Structure formats: structure tokens, C-alpha cells
# Entry
Amino acid sequence: MMDPARSFERAAAAYESARPSYPDELLDALPLDAGSTVLDLGAGTGKLTRVLARRYAHVIAVEPLDGMRAILESVVPQAESHQGSAESIPLPDASVDGVFAAQAFHWFANDEAIEEIARVLRPGGIFAVVWNESVESSSPLPDAYRGRLQELFADGRLAPDDGEDRFAPIERGPFGELHKSTVPHEQLQTRESALAFVSSVSLIARLPDDERAAAMADLGALLPEGEYRFPMTATVRWAVRA
# Structure
């Protein structure tokens, strides 16, 4: 099976075309002014980076995968882009007012990364984790399609991330209380983009080619043509650097 993080390299185009963005108003709750310098860590193709660039004066994006970073640099040219990882951020000490992590946070929800994030933050700066969740009770997907997805994710190799446990390293780090804010929004997808979304999920993208193709063929056979409107909730959790 492909390395989980590296699986995104071959799914970069699907990730960019099918993953949802984040509502700008999600940033309203954060104690950061428009003149702030902020870092998007594990920025991928820049889904969150472009939202940050509309709000803050100086946006830096760090992404380890060349394919993802190339797309980011083309769609958010105003952001300063670097190759790097959460455990080795290529920035000086106390150089940013805010660090953001989006859907990629579960890849580096560990003490080493939190220590490095604290290093580059100025005292009083914030670390914010942003993610989207579908409202499962209002999913527009057919029951058979959802059932096949559940079967795929029931495989031990395709286990989901650790949910609330992901925030434990932040609570152990040099940060204050974790705050939370949510904003409802939605994503409209076609059949093609709905399938592209699934193909971009690391738990599918990392499968061997034959297994991945078989899984996507199964899902494609269960999803009719049409438009699919997904109610979503965008959530941000943030804490202030001590």
C-alpha cells in the first residue's frame, strides 16, 4: 500500500477540483487583525490559503508535497510558499501571529509538531485548526453508495482519524484554553466531482492501483448523474500561545 501522506501526490488534481473551500466568516471569531502574518501549515492545494489571503496582510504556506504545492502556487500566487513539514517549519522563531492547519492536521497531531508550531508563533499568537464536516443526516448521496463507502471504511486499513483525540497535543502544549466556533455552509457537486472527492481521500488514494480502481468502479456504479448539494459545517478551534 502507498505511504498515506504520499498518496496525496497522485490525488492532487482531484483534491483541488473536488474538495470544498471554507467560508470567510469562519475567521471572524479569531483574535487576529488584518495586518497579521499567518502560516497555513500542510496547506495542500491552498483551499484554506486563499481564504487566509483574502483576510490577512501576509500569508505563508508550507506544504511538503511538490504536486500539491505547485497547484497552490498557481492559484494563490500572493502567498509565500515553502517546502517543509509541521515537524520542521522553515521559519524563524516567533515570526508569525497565527498558524492555521486545515484538514491535514490529523497527519501531524503530535507533540513534536505542536512544539514546532509554538516555536514560530509570537507570544499571544494563535494556533487554529479548521475543518469541514458533512451533515450526515442530510446527505444527498444514495443509500447504496453510502453503504458501499461504509464497507470500504470498515476495513482496518481505512480507519478514520482519532476525532477529538487529535487536540490532546495542543492541550499539552504552551497554549491556553481551546475555543470553538462553527459556520454552516454547503457544497454543490456533480457526479464527477463527488467521485473525485472520494478518490482524493487518503484512505482511498493510498490503496494499490487495482484495489483503488475496483473501489472507484463500485462507487461509480452506485452514483447516478445529477447535482448533489451537501450541507456542511465548517469548524475552527483555536488557542492562544502563552
Notes: Strands lie at 37-41, 58-62, 80-82, 96-101, 121-134, 179-190, 227-240.
